[in-house]
Design goal:
This protein has 20 helices and twelve strands. It is of the alpha/beta class and 584 residues long.
């Protein structure tokens, strides 16, 4: 319940509607409790006394208050729905914004399937919990308490006789509630796994088809689906035993009351109207106990979901700004210095990814990073915009440790083209203007020209207004990379990071792009990660990374003479081919 209480702050903005809803619900309960008394009056003072006036007048009162009860119930339902949906909307938005604040390290430990379940299924379950509390959840205990009080008021002896049965029923409910919460948590965890498999397969369906692995993926999905079904069946089977047990106790209670009350009525110690009223109150009290079974299910599921939602909301981003962070240093080109930098991914048992990195990138330089897969190139450049935090050492930007800078200010001056090209559904223009929505047409076209994208965009059916499908599936890999590059260039970044960003572009086009970058990034600093050595030949500084350390650095000509690793990479890719002359 502690996890549920933590989420009550999302209900506070709707406290007025919640309060009115509860007031209406109390009115409905009071009318429910008044009905048996009116029935008692009809029997004892109307039918028994043969007084038609009492029968008619009391019946009319019952009709009027029943109509009022209907109106109150409708109002309660409308307001509870409004509150529940509003809370669910705010909760989804809070979780979404929290995810946006996560550092890369946080995201590494939370897969997409888990986050999707928390944003959809878990918020829906908590919404149902709020709505049920404002409707049945409050009505049931109020009816139980009110009925119990009126049972004692009607006949104390009969009420005392029912006490052991009520205690037994309460113990059964407590037992089931205690067991159901962990069961529902397990069900949601299985749903996490199912959604993870589903998300991976939908995103990679083309790859699955290309490798003819549909049967394998179907088996993976079937296993997760079967596990989810099995756990759901276990929970439902467990819960299904509660309702028959409750019905048994209710039947025993009613039979006992009729037997004992009938004897009392025969001896005149209780009226027929009182007996009927007592039975009605007993049913009114025991009926909500059956409802409490359903409430227990909702409460258990809601508590499990609240715990999972709070897990996201309570996650602290790994990258935190200082109390008084420094702004971006204006009016100077960025000089970036790595001073004895080491780095390791949190939660990894492996050795450090980067060790003792010392590197200087001067304003206007293009610094290329070259090395084998897994050598640490991408990890190195991900430290510049503080996607991750250094484990030791420091990174200085114009003499300021970047950990002292406001992260948002830092990122606003860094343009990144990642390894995996990500485009959003919308127009080509929208994707290029993603980092600068206020950019005009001329600026968009200029960035596209620098990225060698303007020509192919102009040939598209609607040019810059051409719709980009989900994940850019209607564009080739090279086209997507050039649009992503134009998106980064449009920001006019002080630091440009290209993480193998031209791998799908032919060498001739790549050469033109690199020449355009020199003009576009004049006075600014660029980092370029590449697997293809032709990409780095014209860089001002080439840094060879080997097993997390800098093995060599310098220009192409210098490295060809001084670095066996670089020369080996060059010979394996280009040998003595024509591109050697291009570097001279």
């Amino acid at each position: 319940m502690e996890q549920t209480r933590k989420l009550l702050r999302f209900v506070r903005p709707y406290w007025k509607r919640s309060l009115i809803s509860l007031v209406l619900l109390v009115a409905v309960v009071l009318i429910d409790l008044a009905i048996p008394r009116l029935i008692q009056k009809i029997i004892d003072h109307g039918i028994t006394a043969r007084d038609l006036h009492v029968i008619i007048s009391t019946t009319l009162v019952m009709l009027v208050i029943s109509l009022a009860q209907t109106i109150f119930a409708i109002g309660n339902n409308i307001l509870s729905i409004q509150v529940g949906e509003g809370v669910a909307r705010d909760l989804r938005e809070a979780v979404f914004l929290k995810v946006q604040s996560f550092s890369f390290g946080n995201l590494d430990r939370m897969n997409t399937g888990q986050l999707m379940v928390r944003l959809s299924s878990d918020t829906t379950v908590f919404r149902r919990l709020v709505q049920v509390f404002l409707r049945i959840g409050t009505r049931a205990p109020l009816l139980m308490i009110g009925s119990l009080i009126l049972m004692v008021d009607t006949d104390r002896n009969l009420a005392l006789m029912m006490l052991p049965i009520l205690i037994a029923i309460s113990l059964v409910i407590v037992f089931f509630v205690a067991r159901m919460e962990p069961l529902f948590r397990n069900v949601q965890q299985r749903l996490d796994r199912l959604n993870t498999v589903l998300q991976e397969n939908i995103a990679g369906v083309r790859l699955v088809k290309a490798f003819v692995r549909a049967d394998h993926e179907d088996a993976r999905f079937e296993a997760s689906n079967q596990e989810y079904m099995n756990f759901s069946i276990r929970v439902m089977q467990f819960m299904s035993t509660l309702s028959p047990a409750m019905s048994l106790f209710i039947s025993i209670g009613i039979v006992a009351v009729i037997w004992r009350g009938g004897i009392q009525a025969i001896h005149g110690s209780i009226t027929v109207g009182q007996l009927v009223a007592f039975i009605n109150y007993l049913q009114t009290m025991l009926g909500p106990l059956t409802i409490m079974v359903m409430l227990a299910n909702v409460a258990a599921a809601g508590t499990a979901s609240a715990e999972r939602i709070n897990e996201v909301l309570a996650t602290v981003p790994e990258i935190q700004d200082e109390a008084q962070p420094l702004p971006w240093p204006e009016n100077s080109g960025p000089r970036i210095v790595f001073e004895d930098v080491s780095f390791q991914y949190q939660g990894s048992n492996d050795k450090e990814v980067l060790q003792g990195i010392n590197l200087v990138a001067e304003p206007g330089q293009i610094v290329a990073l070259l090395g084998a897969t897994g050598s640490g190139k991408s990890s190195l450049i991900n430290l510049v915009p503080r996607f991750y935090e250094v484990a030791s050492g420091r990174i200085m930007l114009n003499g300021i440790d970047i950990r002292r800078m406001k992260q948002e200010s830092l990122m606003a001056h860094v343009g990144v083209v990642p390894q995996e090209t990500i485009l959003f559904s919308g127009t080509v223009r929208d994707n290029i203007r993603y980092g600068r929505p206020d950019a005009d047409e001329a600026e968009v076209a200029a960035a596209a020209e620098a990225a060698q994208a303007h020509e192919f965009i102009s040939r598209l059916p609607q040019g810059y207004d051409t719709h980009v499908e989900e994940r850019g599936v209607n564009l080739s890999g090279g086209q997507k990379q050039r649009i992503a590059l134009a998106r980064a260039l449009l920001m006019r970044p002080s630091i440009l990071i290209l993480d193998d960003a031209t791998s799908a572009i032919d060498v001739a086009t790549e050469t033109i792009i690199q020449e355009a970058l020199r003009t576009w990034m004049q006075g600014r600093t660029s980092f370029m990660v590449a697997q293809r050595i032709s990409t780095v030949l014209r860089a001002d500084k080439i840094v060879v990374i080997d097993k997390g350390r800098i093995a060599a650095e310098g220009t192409h000509e210098r490295l060809m003479q001084s670095s066996p690793i670089y020369r080996e990479i060059y010979d394996s890719q280009l040998g003595a081919g024509p591109l050697l002359g291009m570097a001279e």
